[in-house]
Write a structure and sequence with these properties.
The protein is of the alpha/beta class. The protein has a single domain, classed as TIM Barrel (Alpha-Beta Barrel). Helix content is 29%, strand content 20%.
């Protein structure tokens, strides 16, 4: 997916990866979200995530940078308010994303509250969403905060979790956690690595079984668009993505799109 800057430059590569330089990214023109303003609430100069996906454009996980701190809810809200005040075009979306997993923030529910308050005051027509790996979605406080948002774009990639997501995790627990979320969108990165493929029939069948149980409101299917953390990870051809999307349409009542 290609995002084009509108008025505030997107941070470039830092250390060979697309680490954001600050809290605000954009606004950018996104094929999925229209005009989107990104929020990075991970400590600066750090890539922190509870997954460590080899396809990630931000690179592999790092230790928290020396001297870096999680931005406070007030600092996040202030950065968002100042950015919105300076924009000529209001964003369609304000999206938690950034250098890792937003729900790792130790005060994530409070950050959500402050962001929603700024949105209501300064850009009431904008929707607020999150790109999230879902591993914390079963925690009551995180679940409740996620459900306050306008969209929950949660991860479920086809392929062995320890390979496609870099860490083993209990997908049964993940599916149970997703049951507590309202109208979620599944974001599925389909890639191949040495000795495995998220586009294989076995990976696809397992993924479809989970989709049938989740019954998400939407599924977003995509493959590599930028340099991955692991150069051995390969993109999947568009015609295979089309076939995967068709199978997904037969498994759920929601919409399925390719990006």
């Amino acid at each position: 997916m290609t995002d084009l800057p509108l008025s505030i430059p997107r941070p470039g590569k830092i250390g060979g990866t697309f680490l954001w330089a600050g809290i605000i990214n954009g606004p950018v023109r996104s094929r999925r979200l229209g005009i989107s303003l990104g929020l990075n609430i991970v400590p600066p100069r750090s890539k922190l995530c509870t997954m460590d996906c080899p396809y990630c454009e931000c690179g592999f996980n790092t230790p928290k940078a020396e001297g870096a701190r999680w931005p406070s809810p007030d600092i996040v809200a202030d950065a968002l308010a100042k950015t919105l005040d300076g924009l000529e075009v209001r964003p369609d979306w304000i999206t938690f994303a950034g250098n890792g997993e937003p729900t790792m923030h130790p005060r994530f529910p409070r950050v959500v509250d402050r962001v929603l308050a700024v949105r209501d005051a300064r850009a009431s027509a904008a929707r607020v969403g999150i790109l999230c790996n879902g591993l914390a979605a079963g925690k009551p406080a995180i679940r409740d905060a996620l459900n306050l948002l306008d969209a929950r774009m949660m991860k479920l990639d086809p392929g062995p979790p320890e390979l496609v997501n870099g860490v083993p995790h209990d997908r049964e627990q993940l599916i149970r956690s997703y049951a507590g979320l309202a109208d979620l969108t599944i974001q599925a990165m389909v890639v191949e690595g040495p000795g495995w493929s998220g586009a294989s029939e076995g990976s696809l069948e397992e993924w479809l079984r989970y989709l049938r149980r989740i019954q998400p409101a939407a599924v977003h299917v995509y493959s590599l668009d930028r340099q991955p953390a692991d150069p051995s990870i390969k993109r999947v051809a568009r015609d295979r993505l089309e076939a995967i999307a068709d199978r997904a349409r037969g498994a759920i009542r929601g919409s399925v799109e390719i990006f």
